[in-house]
């Protein structure tokens, strides 16, 4: 059943769906990890030496598991940074996406894994990439979750500030509508505003982030947005 949510301009079903960005992002399960062989197994364990040995024997660096994950994507999910370095040095596709269109930057952003995020950027993964089933970005996902430090890193890496996903929302909008109005989301919104994000882009119903913040009683966000 689709229940209309007054003032939001979309059905509650969509709100629930986009309120769970990690729900479409599927880390390897223990059962999958136990069944892995070859590069996927070595990546999951973070065994860089084994990875290099397998590469020398001709293993496919960009082989896919049942969810479209390459060994590099598996290593990112499990924060196996030495394995990530070894795979990219050997020629793995640093911008590969899984079957739900998540790359290593978005995986790290959703996990609030700052060190893996920094490595993903250093290895050449594109912070500007359009990712996820929502045609979003890592920045939008991080803003939604209130991962303020991740947001700052992505901004510095050139992530698009005003990208609008297929739900009609920017990173600013998600920080307000899908945030809780607390300190993490306030810091996220401040980082976006300081970087020059357009804080006035409305949703598909014409409701601005400021109006959403006012309706939710998010006083700090209202003060910030009211100054822009």
Can you tell me about this structure?
The protein has 228 residues and is mainly α. It has a domain at 1-24 and 131-228: Ankyrin repeat-containing domain (Serine Threonine Protein Phosphatase 5, Tetratricopeptide repeat, Alpha Horseshoe). It is built from 14 helices and two strands; from the N terminus they run ββαααααααααααααα. The chain has helices at residues 12-18, 30-35, 38-45, 48-56, 71-77, 81-90, 104-111, 114-122, 138-145, 148-156, 171-177, 183-194, 209-216, 219-227, and strands at 4-5, 10-11. The protein has a two-stranded antiparallel ribbon with strand order 1-2. β1 (4-5) and β2 (10-11) form a beta hairpin. α11 (171-177) packs antiparallel against α12 (183-194). The longest helix is centred in the C-terminal third of the chain and has 12 residues, at 183-194. It is elongated. The protein starts with a strand and ends with a helix. The model is unreliable at 1-18 (pLDDT under 50).
